[in-house]
């Protein structure tokens, strides 16, 4: 078994490092460097022509991918999008827009609640179903109308890493395919594809920050709680960062949209509560800066992951990790990689079973 890990101590670390290759493999473009509808299966073009809304259903880390996709689908494709965890979605009475595409997201393609959500969807509720899965021939793949297979390769670590980032590539490709029909210009689509093509480079640059992230991780080992803040599309990335830390290091971590800090969690901030901020250099940065000030003035220690061109500098009680400068649209993917490494190093130093965290299963096939 250890031979499969190559030079790595854990599958999780190996899988984190496989991301540049997995992301490039998932970005399958046609000869004209475009996202072809057929990538989503036979008949995708006819379905995509009719889509007026998107309902995303998933569990765990895959749910976070759906939450990121909502920002893309609404902003770039102008499509109303709802995202819900499968175990909630399936047990409530819903009101559905006409011509809604049901999108399930699942690494394994076997998660019981996600599969049940697909199976329970009443005929006529949805225009069609599309699954984004990493395992060919899995139940969700067999039972969905349309399929996009991510090319992450086998993922062994229970905490999902490369499956998540490849799901995000798939979801941005879906956004481009749907957006083209809804006012996304060819120039903008080309920009998005170019950003995706350079994504493996930005992820590689992030992997090169591994030692710096390992240094930061030491501040978390003795803590029992941590707070993750993000704004906009980085809020779900903060959620994913918090989930990773919980899963493998057993540190209680919560994610908040940065603006909600003053509505509750600020009461918890002191020198025992590290606060991680995912703060790319976008138009919301200034507001996030004032939130960060609130944390610092209460004795909290801040860990800011920020674009190296954003003008954030380390100072007492604020440690900044300078992230590669890259297009806004791929930042959720690039920042995820840094947070994966942070959790990994905290867990290793705490001596937990990184690849098989207690009580968790890779694939949850019971309800
Ligand atoms: C389990 C795994 C998670 C995963 C979730 C959904 O909880 O431990 O890593 O995100 O299931 O799995 P899926 O295969 O549907 O993506």
Please give a quick description of this structure.
Its main location: cytoplasm. The chain has 367 residues and is of the alpha/beta class.
Helix content: 40-55%
Largest β sheet strand count, sense and barrel closure: 5 strands, parallel
Between the first and last Cα atoms, what is the distance in angstroms?
30 Å
Ions and ligands: 6-O-phosphono-alpha-D-glucopyranose
Average pLDDT, rounded to a whole number, is 93
Q: Which value, in Å, is the CA radius of gyration?
A: 20 Å
Approximately what portion of the residues adopt beta-strand conformation?
A: 15-25%
Structural class, please?
alpha/beta
**Rough outline:** globular
- In the sheet with the most strands, the strands line up as 2-1-3-4-5
Low-confidence stretches: none
The total strand number stands at 10
Number of helices: 13
Element order: H for helix, E for strand: HHHEHEHEHEHEHHHEHEEHEEH
Question: Layout of SSEs?
Answer:
Layout: H1 11-17, H2 19-26, H3 44-50, E1 53-58, H4 60-77, E2 81-85, H5 86-89, E3 100-106, H6 112-120, E4 128-133, H7 139-143, E5 146-149, H8 162-179, H9 186-207, H10 210-217, E6 225-230, H11 234-249, E7 252-257, E8 275-279, H12 285-297, E9 302-307, E10 318-323, H13 331-350
Parallel strand pairs: 1-2, 1-3, 3-4, 4-5, 6-7, 6-8, 8-9, 9-10
Helix pairs in contact: 2-8, 2-9, 4-8, 4-11, 8-9, 9-13, 10-13, 11-13
The structure holds 6-O-phosphono-alpha-D-glucopyranose (G6P).
